[in-house]
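My convention is simple: the sequence line spells out the residues, with the fold written below as integer tokens. I include a record here:
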Amino acid sequence: MNNEIKQKTEYFSALINKNYNQLKDFYAHSFMEFCELNSLKVEILNCQLFELFQSSIFSTNHFMERMIKLALIKLHTIEFDLSDIEKYSERLKESEKKYDNLVLFKSLEKALEKKLITTEQYDYLINAKNEFRNPYSHAEVSKVIKNDNDFTGFMFSFSDVQDKLKEGKPLDIPKPTVIPKFSPAIAQMLQENNSREKAFEYFENVFVILKEMENKITELKSEKH
């Protein structure tokens, strides 16, 4: 067991050394208006750090959806805080009814309508909903791998190859075999590859949008108080 722990420690230490520099600025940043999301941000970064790219996408999906609803809630309660707990609680109850049960599409529409996000950001988040949130959340692998090709390879009999090599005879090269990309093993491999390529950029884009929404909330608060 000690040897196994040592191997894992060395493995994860190597990943930290490899990936930390790319992530350190994100670790260092702390949201103020959206301080509730700092721990979730760190969880996503830890997925990136240890190259758990599919898990990073799963968590970023939640991060994205939560930040939009949270922005709407904070806008709705912007004039109140814990110093006036009765009015603040009343506004929180209103915001729960208005926003907590919204589907993502409606949340994004509301955020755009209230100018919490720009049209460009809205378009990006709608695309992210279709590319990441829905396919990964609903395990619709055909949508995750829609831009990939079927797998093409050659099928050989190991015993036949061994016999030919022993006899010094040339191998018979068969016709290529096409395996559909939706084949479970191939599909999962392609999903892993796509996640590796896209997970960091997806998180980074959502992170930047959240920073800009936080600035808007801060500005609006200074106008109200």
